[in-house]
């Protein structure tokens, strides 16, 4: 780049398209988690009408996770092979179609209703697989390191915002129009939003609204602005699967993967069993559950933003990724263990307070995707993100089933809450004693 060109760029007023990108990721992620939470709200009415017991509902809830985990490595490979734009659009479109189809299972008789619900939920999970690795790739491409945790916390906090916005709506829809309407509503919104991805998603160097000053700012700060650029021959080859061995033998990444697994146990408790806990254990009607479930979600939303801003503040002050990322994660996970106090109170107010505290802590500590954007090798960021999400979302298979059997065996939720809190402690332990220094991994060969 010539000196004249550099001077021209320096004089430009920098655009802020990167923040527009993260707002779009926020909207998509809110819909993503709203779709996942549909069974948590509609589950009681659906299971009552269709005759599903708690164990059956646990398996239906886990069907999403089974497919989601299976699809992570293929999804990450597809992102690296074809780029974020195409795969992200197809992901949103098809997961929304399969969400909508879940509202049709009442047309099937007996066991077929359970089989079809499991199938549609499974296909929804498969279609969602590239979503978070895609978020991570887009964030790594569009944000310098000193803004990355804030960006990740914004789109990641959408999981709480989804409950704040969609839980009351879904509770009202279930009460007024039946559980089927929840799936029709959420699926329809997703199909509409999917087409906006085709307009919004571009590489920073190719985006029509981003000027050279912004691209240079991102590049200087460590953003991977050329991640989806085609090679000289016009082709963009997929990553070598052989690189998986390097990812799986890296201590830092193994600790991050374990931490994400444990953090996601909390996530899937809140979006699956928590509304059912309020309705069955505490005897609250489903319409009220939708509104009460939104209160801890608001706390999680605030915690998510707080954790990201705090992490980037520490990054600017210490210039240490390890301090900046680990501190909020460890403190947040320890604070989230406060949910066990719900076992010792009968007041609904106190239960919501303790769950709000736990959700706030979980939000503060949910910086795994920021860590992944900081550490994933540039050449295989999609594959590395897919493996990260596969390990993390193994909890979406195990924890709903485990909680279902715990509740069925004991008839109550006390040990289920202990089960979730122990995972929060393990997450903190992993970041303190296993992860080690946080830095971008370099591939060998």
From TrEMBL:
It is a multi-pass membrane protein. It comes from the Bacteria. The chain crosses the membrane at residues 16-34, 54-75, 87-105, 150-173, 179-201, 261-279, 291-315, 327-345, 351-371, 383-407, 413-434. One of its GO terms (cellular component) is plasma membrane. It is found in: Cell membrane. Its main location: membrane. It holds the Pfam family MFS_1. CDD domains: MFS_ExuT_GudP_like (cd17319). Keywords: Cell membrane, Membrane, Transmembrane, Transmembrane helix, Transport. InterPro entries: MFS, MFS_dom, MFS_Na/Anion_cotransporter, MFS_trans_sf, Sugar_P_transporter. The keyword Cell membrane applies. Residues 21-439 form the Major facilitator superfamily (MFS) profile domain. PANTHER family: FI19708P1-RELATED, SOLUTE CARRIER FAMILY 17. This is MFS transporter. It comes from Zophobihabitans entericus.
